[in-house]
Amino acid sequence: MFGRIKSRGVVFIVGIIFIVAVLIIIVKNYESSQEEDYSNEVEIQSDELFTLEDDSDEIIVDTPTIVLENVESDSNNQIAKNEKSIDEKNDTKILPEKILLKVPFVAQAPFGIWDEYHEEACEEASLIMLKYFLDGKDEITKKEMEAEIQKMIKFQIDKYGDYKDSSMEDVVQLAQDFYGI
Can you give 97-142 as a three-state secondary structure string? Predict the structure, then answer.
């Protein structure tokens, strides 16, 4: 009995870690997709980008001066073909000490039935919670979670032949194939 409870606790912790990892991957992919690729040298002129104030726990971020040299024009001809300098004001930004994300949560066995399907559904449950979070939904019902888990398991069996023990790469692929994220 205690082994089963401990197993559920480990699955819960792994699920939370998984959600955080997937969020980081998605944010990094989003950030990199938003950056324009000039395929040129960028020089950051600042010796100290981040400073920690001694009197507080706040992190101060100084925006550096950026110099772009010999930048070729892009396909929309938005950047001239000469040396450009961008002098940004040294704005000081205070970063929060912590950020709280309200991710809707329901266990991978919403009705407490820990059968073979639900023992192996931590990745699916994590993706479902991530999808609801990205869609701006504050909660997910047990009934909705169970239905989504069953649809996702069926999808994986039909498309991949199995649904158990997914690697991070498998989970990213599932997120793209099943939800388009």
Answer: CCCCCCCCCCCCCCCCCCCHHHHCCHHHHHHHHHHHHHCCCCCCCH
Q: How many CB atoms lie within 10 A of CB 134?
A: 14
3-state SS, residue 164: coil
DSSP labels, 145-159: HHHHHHHHHHHHHHH
Between the alpha carbon of residue 28 and those of residues 24, 35, 95, the distances in Å are 6, 11, 18
Query: Hey, what are 20's tokens?
Result: 């955080």
C-beta separation of 60 from 53 below 8 A? yes
Name the phi and psi angles at 20, rounded to 5: -60, -45
Q: What is the pLDDT of residues 66-99, one digit of tens each?
A: 555 555 555 554 554 444 445 555 667 888 888 8
Residue 16 to residue 163: CA distance in whole angstroms = 19
Q: What global pTM score does this model have?
A: 0.50
> Percent of the chain having pLDDT more than 90?
40
Q: DSSP state, 175?
A: I
